[in-house]
Amino acid sequence: MEHSIGPPAVTSSGHEEVFAYWSSLRRAGQLPCRADIDPWKLKRHLPNISLIDVVRGPDGEISYRQRLAGTGLYLVYGREITGRALEEVYPGADAAYWREQLSKVVDAGRPTVGRHTVTHRPGGACPIVWIRLPLASDGKSVDMILGYDTPIGAAMARYASGIRAA
């Protein structure tokens, strides 16, 4: 269940707020860049925020590296994922799934949202709803992706940390 989105398709208030903030940063058809983001404006959502670097190799191949993962994502993924390459965070089929989703964001320069179950974590599977939003230093070519993941259903209570942003 993933697709390009507009505000009505977003499935939680957190996702709506992160999308609305990202959308407010767009100017004259240009994508926002990392420098446009004010963490204070997302402070309530920081535990579930991630930043993913889009790394272009000399041969044109694209790889992805988790630049930042909020503290709440430790509970979702069962470990620290900051600084890790996509293939280090996800095994086989999950890495292929995320490569496809991230590539959609890069290729189209548009947000994508979906639902996925993180199965490879200690303590059992954790279903999440996610959104990925393109960022571009030059306003056009996606070089970073802003992410927001939240556990859903029973997982939300099970993985709640009690940690809340000020």
The outline comes out as globular
- Quick one: biggest sheet? 6 strands, antiparallel
Number of strands: 6
Order of strands in the sheet with the most strands? 1-4-5-6-2-3
Give the total of domains: 1
Residue runs with pLDDT of under 50 for 5 or more positions: 1-10, 155-166
What share of the residues lie within helices? 25-40%
Mean pLDDT: 85
Give Rg in angstroms.
Answer: 15 Å
- CATH A-level architecture: 2-Layer Sandwich
Main features:
Beta-Lactamase, about 25% helix, 6-stranded antiparallel beta sheet, alpha+beta, disordered C terminus, about 170 residues, single chain, disordered N terminus
Describe what this molecule looks like in 3D.
- This protein is of the alpha+beta class.
- The chain has a single domain (2-158), classed as PAS domain (Beta-Lactamase).
- Helices cover 27% and strands 27% of the residues.
- The protein has a six-stranded antiparallel β-sheet with strand order 1-4-5-6-2-3.
- The longest helix is centred in the middle third of the chain and has 17 residues, at 92-108.
- 29% of the residues are buried.
Summarize the structure.
The protein has 166 residues and is an alpha+beta fold. The protein has helices spanning 13-24, 71-77, 86-89, 92-108, 154-158, and strands spanning 2-4, 49-56, 62-69, 112-118, 126-135, 144-151.
Task: Produce the secondary structure layout.
Layout: E1 2-4, H1 13-24, E2 49-56, E3 62-69, H2 71-77, H3 86-89, H4 92-108, E4 112-118, E5 126-135, E6 144-151, H5 154-158
Antiparallel strand pairs: 1-4, 2-3, 2-6, 4-5, 5-6
